[in-house]
Design brief:
The protein is mainly beta. Helix content is 3%, strand content 42%. It has a single domain, classed as YVTN repeat-like/Quinoprotein amine dehydrogenase (Methylamine Dehydrogenase, Chain H), CATH 2.130.10.10. β2 and β3 form a beta hairpin. The chain is globular.
């Protein structure tokens, strides 16, 4: 049976089941052969592009709308909380940002991976990877709604025009374009050479996104208007690309490589590698500082956070967690004063002071905390993941 036929059968069956029913995930495949890539240019200015996308506030700074405290009206009165998906517990713990205490505990589907703000910022979607479903949470009340069946949701994104939800069906090696509101699939992009398709980010003009292929050591480029694969590049043999973030000026993209212990620099327009910057063992999550001058890199294998200058493309500092740890995925509070990061293998969440990198608090949560979402966040609309806002 082909991947397309499998999806059709799965979805036809899933829509007949109760929302909380879990389906087994297919087995994951290993990496194919890789090839080297050349390098290219420097700075650029972002042009407007995809029809229907809100214009950037500053064509020289993609993150201009994410400045400290710049909350959209619809989230301005949402309580400041942190939503932590515990992958091995099948729950979401809710932490009060002001008291650093767990104030809620929400049962969800099997293997929750990330908590993702919707395009309109009014819903937080819990990605139940093995549960083949998305659980909505109302950020005003913290209460969950009825789960929606979708295929293999490891991660979730939204097109910059707000029309499509983009489901990273990692085990199926597919990218599913669904209605952004109902989550009903409308088109499936098969990416058989992209084992472990999971993290992505979008060009400043909204015309394409780049996704990482964790188990294939590759990156793929997808044209959004046509929902088509338009490019593939390979990193070095054995690479395990994780999170990806575009620079404020759109000139390069940063790709964390857990196996290589650093970040690759890629020119997205020409789709060529520019270079590599070592940060630390197990480089994993990437988060721009609210002033768009520094990129935080979580080094999961050594319990540290590296600071990379966007201007110089060099590491300018490293914060080490006391006693080590496993900093994985997270995000910044609205003011940009606290970096919240899950401790993937330690059952904790770290709250880190961004003024000097000291650990404010280590908070015990469930088993296997992963893609936590700090909410609310500045920005006008969400492109997904744990908070890619523009």
């Amino acid at each position: 049976m082909t991947g397309r036929q499998l999806l059709a059968v799965t979805m036809a069956f899933a829509f007949l089941l109760p929302a909380c029913t879990s389906l087994p995930a297919p087995a994951r495949a290993g990496p194919p052969a890789l090839r080297p890539t050349p390098s290219v240019k420097n700075r650029s200015t972002v042009a407007q592009g995809l029809a229907g996308m809100p214009p950037l506030l500053d064509r020289h700074n993609i993150y201009a709308a994410d400045a400290p405290g710049r909350l959209a009206p619809q989230v301005a009165h949402d309580p400041p909380l942190v939503y932590v998906p515990n992958s091995k517990s099948g729950t979401v713990d809710v932490i009060d940002q002001r008291t650093y205490r767990v104030v809620g505990h929400v049962p969800v589907g099997a293997l929750p991976q990330h908590v993702v703000p919707s395009y309109d910022l009014r819903t937080l979607w819990v990605n139940n990877n093995d549960g083949y479903s998305l659980t909505p949470i109302d950020p005003r009340t913290g209460k969950p709604g009825r789960a929606v069946p979708v295929p293999d949701p490891y991660n979730l994104y939204f097109s910059p025009d707000g029309k499509f939800a983009i489901i990273m069906a990692e085990a199926l090696k597919e990218i599913v374009f669904a209605d952004a509101h109902t989550m009903r699939p409308e088109h499936v992009l098969h990416v058989p050479g992209c084992g472990g398709v999971n993290h992505a980010d979008f060009s400043g003009d909204g015309r394409y996104f780049i996704a990482t292929c964790e188990f294939a050591g590759r990156l793929i480029k997808v044209d959004l208007a046509n929902q088509a694969l338009v490019g593939t590049i390979a990193l070095q043999r054995g690479a395990m690309p994780q999170d990806i973030k575009i620079a404020p000026d759109g000139a390069v993209w940063y790709v964390a490589d857990m196996a290589a212990g650093g970040v690759w620099l890629v020119n997205g327009d020409t789709f060529r590698t520019v270079g590599f910057l070592r940060t630390g063992k197990g480089a994993h999550g990437l988060y721009p500082r609210r002033d768009a001058r520094v990129l935080y890199v979580t080094n999961r294998g050594e319990g540290s956070i590296s600071l990379v200058s966007f201007a110089t493309r060099k590491t300018i500092g490293t914060w080490h967690l006391p006693g080590g740890g496993s900093p994985d995925m997270g995000g910044l509070n609205a003011a940009g004063t606290v970096l919240w990061v899950s401790g993937r293998y330690n059952g904790v969440v770290y709250a880190i002071d961004t003024a000097d990198g000291h650990l404010i608090r280590k908070i015990a949560v469930g088993n296997g905390p992963h893609g936590l979402c700090v909410y609310p966040q500045p920005g006008r609309y969400s492109l997904g993941h744990t908070g890619i806002l523009r």
